# Entry
Amino acid sequence: MQQAPLPDDESARIAALAESGLLDTPTERVFDALTQAAAVICDTPIALVSLIDQRRQWFKSAIGLSQGAQTPRDAAFCAHAILAPRQLMEIPDAARDERFSDNPLVTGAPDIRFYAGAPLLTRDGHALGALCVIDRKPRELNDMQRHALRELAHAVTALIDARRQQADSERQLHRLYHDTPAMLYSLDGSGRLIAASQLWLDRLGYTRDEILGRNPREFMTPASREAFLQVRQGYWSAGGCRDHACQFVRADGTVIDVLMSAVVERAAHGEPVRALCVLTDVTEQLRLQRELQRVAHEDSLTGASNRGRFVELLGAEIERANRHGRALSLVLFDVDRFKQVNDTYGHAAGDAALRSLAAVAKAQLRRSDVLGRLGGEEFALLLPETGGDGALQVAERLREAVAAIPVAHADRSFAVTISLGVSSLLPGDTPDRVLARADEALYAGKRSGRNRTVAWEARTAQSTLERLAFLETSVMAV
# Structure
C-alpha cells in the first residue's frame, strides 16, 4: 500500500483544521444534506465529508458507510486527494491503481473500486480534507457530475468557513442553488419555499418568483399530497426523511415520479428553522421497472398472464378466499384439435388463433378476473368471488363466443372451438389441486365430444373416474 506524502503546508494545514472546530463534533444536518446531494448527483452508494488529521481520516458526514467514524490516515484515499488541492482526484478502478490495489479499504470492506474526491480548500488555501463519492464497481464521472462535485465541495468549504465568516457561506449556498445539477430546495420553519436550484425550476417548469413562499405540497398530485400530510409531522420531528416516494406536477400538467430526501435544521432551542431537500427524478426508472415486470409476468403472444404469474395469483386468491370465506372458481380451456389448425393453416395462423382466443376471453372478464396462458394452446380463467354455477355460466358464454367469432389470418378465416373444465375451491385446496381437477374435467369434455363445458364434482366411495360428474351444457361436436 502506497502511503501519501505529507503536503508542503502540513503544519499550517493541521492548525487550520484544528481552528475549524469540526473534529469530533456531532453530525449536522446541513453537511448531511450536501453529502446526500453528492451521492444522488454522482449516483454512488457512498459519499463522505472526510477531514485528514495527523494520523486519521475522520468523517464529518457519511452517507452509505456503516464502518465507524474514522479510518487510519495511511489507508485514506483523501490523503492523496489533498496533495493537489485545486484538482478533483478520480480513481476509475482502485484495484488496477498501483497506489491502492493492496489498500485494505479496497481488498476488504467497504470494497472501494471507484473514488472521486474534491478537496475542501479553505479561504487561506489549506486543504482540510475532501468531499468524496465512492462506488463498489469501476466507473467514471461525467463532466456534469465532476462539476457538481466541485460545486458541492465549495459549499462544504463555505460551511466550514462560516464558523468564522457567515457571509461567505451564504454566497456559496446561493451559487449551489443556481449552478448545481440537482433538484434541491429549501423550506423555512413553516414549510414555505425559500430557495430552489435551477434544475428544480427547469424540471418542473416554474420560475423562481412563481414558487417562492409557497408550500411544496402545492406542486404534488392530490394522492401524494394526502400521503405526505399523513407523515409530515413525523418527518419534521425526526429531523427529515429519506427516499419518500411521491409525484410532482409540472407546470404543463405532466407528472413526474420522485424520491424526496430532506434534513431539518434546528435552532438552539430545538425549533426547526429550515429544511434542505433534494428530489431524485425516478420517472424513467419506474417506467422501466413496470415494463420489466410486465415482460416477466406476461405471455408475449397473447398478453395473458404467463404460467408462473397465474399460479402465483391463484395461490394468493386461494389464501384470500379461505381467509374471508369467499367463493373461488377456475376455468381451464384449450383449443380443440389445435394441431390440425397448425397443420392446415400454418403456425402463423395458429398464433393468430391464440391471440384471437385471448382477446375474446378478455372481453368476457371482470376487472377482478385473470386470464392466464399455461402453455401451448392451454389457457385458464381465475374467477374470484365466483361459485360453481357462476363459473359454468362464464365458461359457457366464452365457449359460445369463441365458436361464433372466426379467426382472420392473411386472406382467409377459419373457426375454432374450445373445450372447458370448471373447478371450484374446496377446503384445503392448493393451486395444483384446483388445476388438476379442472384438467380432469377439461379432458373429460374432450373425450365426450369436444366443444363442451364440463364441471368437476366429487362423489364419495367411487373411483377417480367415477367421481367425475359431467354437467354438459352443449352437445355440439366439432
